[in-house]
Design brief:
Elements: H1 4-16, E1 22-31, E2 43-44, E3 46-59, E4 64-69, E5 75-80, H2 92-108, E6 115-121, H3 131-146, H4 153-167, H5 174-181, E7 186-191, E8 196-201, E9 207-212, H6 222-238, H7 248-253, H8 260-285, H9 288-306, H10 311-324, E10 330-334, E11 341-346, H11 351-366, E12 371-375, E13 382-385
Parallel strand pairs: 4-6
Antiparallel strand pairs: 1-3, 1-13, 2-7, 3-6, 4-5, 7-8, 9-11, 9-12, 10-11
Helix pairs in contact: 2-3, 2-4, 3-4, 3-5, 4-5, 6-8, 8-9, 10-11
This protein binds alpha-D-galactopyranose.
């Protein structure tokens, strides 16, 4: 079978007329629970998935990044490494790279040098599985490894996050942190205030399923930043630096001082943080009933309080719940929201039951088919010298 690695290698040789000397890979992610908590300093529980971004590269003895994007019909861009790197006026894909290079050049100056690069990925775009974070982390880790910059993995993640801000998306740290730090067979509980990382083993009695609604979400838009602003507003009304520092008691004391929407946004985040901690324990123990309960609550909270679900993902969640029963359906929308994927943690023998139920019922709600795949928890960014 031809892999993305093979295709990327071939494209590199064809474009640059030489063999690459290095290879980098960084995965996408799925979040088990903890949505829109990261930029509030809270907790998340993602794992790296079996899809990601790969790059073949070779130093080109210049101060230029020359890059071929196989997935963008072999679109090509080159830019100078300098203390200020301008955004490309039209090519979004290369701005993720420009943003990362900008950060690294600011820190390391001319220790960052030119590379010829071919990129290919297989994270479905617009599915909320962090194709852009995997691109940023892949490139950041490649540059760091190629030129011995020894940037710690969490700093690579922060550089990726800054590249998103450069493009206009004020995201949190979750996606880049897991893409950089993923560990095989483990989820990672991330404390997004201290950046503390706790590995949580995937229990042997459960598997992780991803159900793509095939309703594309587009995060470089105002909805995400609006949610973030509401959270900041709620924190400021309560006089705390971050919603992580608030409790439901405190929020209720201030209920009259904020509008209903701001109150509900904050309620989602505060209750979601509590759910992540409980769910992480239940997951580790393989306690499916408790996990199912918490994940369903998380979905309801995203649907009713944070208002980031769509009828198709709501529908998928209900289909899985109906097929497996409340006790066995640990299922919720995952990622930034407004479409994208649903994640389900289920017993292995239930995978077919879920698939059949979705095949039978999803099209009636959405007019399209869902795509379902199982993933193991995978390793984070990996550099190889060839
Ligand atoms: C996107 C962002 C993350 C996080 C999630 C929601 O994936 O990039 O930082 O906020 O949405 O949990």
């Amino acid at each position: 079978m031809t892999t993305i690695k093979d295709i990327c290698h071939k494209a590199f040789v064809e474009k640059f007329g030489a063999e690459p000397t290095m290879y980098e890979y960084a995965p996408g992610r799925v979040n088990i629970i903890g949505e829109h908590t990261d930029y509030n300093g809270g907790f998340v529980l993602p794992c790296a998935i079996k899809y990601g971004t790969c790059m073949y590269a070779k130093p080109n003895n210049s101060n230029q990044i020359r890059v071929l994007a196989v997935d963008m019909q072999n679109d090509y861009d080159e830019f100078e490494l300098a203390t200020v790197i301008e955004k490309h006026p039209t090519k979004l894909w290369v701005n993720y790279l420009r943003g990362v290079a900008y950060q690294l050049c600011e820190k390391f100056g001319d220790r960052v040098k030119g590379l010829d690069i071919a990129i290919k990925g297989d994270v479905p775009p617009g599915a909320g599985l962090s194709s852009s974070a995997s691109l940023e982390v892949c490139f950041g880790h490649l540059l760091s490894s190629a030129f011995n910059l020894n940037v710690p993995l969490m700093d690579i993640a922060l550089i990726g996050q800054a590249a998103e801000a450069y493009i206009g998306m004020k995201c949190g740290i979750m996606d880049q942190a897991i893409s950089a730090n993923g560990t095989k067979d483990h989820c990672l509980r991330i404390d997004c205030k201290s950046y503390g990382l706790t590995q949580v083993a995937v229990p042997s009695n459960l598997v992780i399923l991803i159900l793509n609604s095939n309703i594309k979400h587009q995060l470089v838009g105002s909805e995400y930043n609006d949610r973030r602003e509401s959270c900041e507003k709620a924190a400021s009304i309560m006089g705390v630096p971050l919603l992580r520092d608030a409790t439901m008691d405190l929020l209720n004391q201030y209920k009259d001082k904020m509008d209903d929407e701001t109150y509900r946004r904050a309620r989602h985040v505060i209750t979601e943080d509590e759910r992540v901690l409980k769910a992480s324990d239940a997951f580790e123990k393989g306690d499916l009933t408790t996990l199912a309960h918490l994940m369903y609550e998380s979905h309801e909270s995203m649907r009713d309080d944070f208002e980031i679900t769509v009828k198709e993902t709501d529908g998928l969640v209900e289909i899985v719940k109906e097929a497996l029963g409340v006790q066995k359906a640990a299922v919720r929308q995952t990622g930034g929201g407004f479409g994208g994927c649903v994640v389900a943690v289920v017993e292995p023998q239930m995978v077919d039951v879920v698939k059949k139920a979705v095949e039978a019922k999803y099209k009636a709600i959405s007019g399209i088919d869902a795509t379902i795949f199982e993933t193991t928890a995978c390793a984070g960014a990996t550099f190889t010298k060839l």
